[in-house]
Design brief:
156 residues, mainly alpha, 5 helices, 2 strands, 78% helix
């Protein structure tokens, strides 16, 4: 059951990202997704395999749900949260979008916990919420760096 819900949420995220009016270019979105994907994979490797704070199920369907969550849902939902607010909006609007999107990602993590896809040992949902907020901030930092490199390259 967890796999079907996670596949649906991944499909929903990809569809929403494709259908929504984006405030970023396709290359910017690709760069954000790529970097968030790499950071999320490394974080999950450290917390799951090295520190053993979180363990995941060994049942093949549940493990597939975990992998889909890690590789598709997290980066795409963060980009949806970043793209839902126009570029020139206020900081309060951006913080609101960050907090709402992080809450949605925590709700998805609650679904994973309820279907025994992941198990927390020395971890809790507050840490996940803070991690998702930091991923959003990292996404905005990556966007800032990307734009500064592209604009510097265009001026020279």
């Amino acid at each position: 059951m967890a796999l079907s819900i996670i596949v649906y949420l991944a499909w929903l995220g990809i569809t929403i990202l494709y259908a929504m009016k984006k405030s970023f270019s396709k290359i910017e979105i690709s760069a954000i997704i790529f970097f968030i994907f790499i950071i999320d994979i490394n974080r999950s490797w450290i917390t799951n395999d090295e520190l053993k704070y979180i363990t995941y199920s060994n049942v093949p369907l549940n493990f597939s749900a975990y992998i889909i969550h890690r590789t598709l849902i997290t980066p795409f939902y963060i980009v949806i949260g970043m793209s839902s607010i126009p570029r020139n909006s206020s900081v309060v609007m951006k913080i609101t979008a960050i907090l709402i999107t992080s809450f949605v990602l925590v709700l998805i993590k609650i679904v994973l916990l309820s279907f025994d896809v992941v198990y927390f040992h020395q971890w809790n949902l507050i840490y996940d919420y803070l991690y998702y907020v930091l991923l959003h901030l990292l996404g905005y930092f990556i966007l800032y760096c990307y734009n500064s490199f592209v604009l510097k390259g265009a001026k020279n």
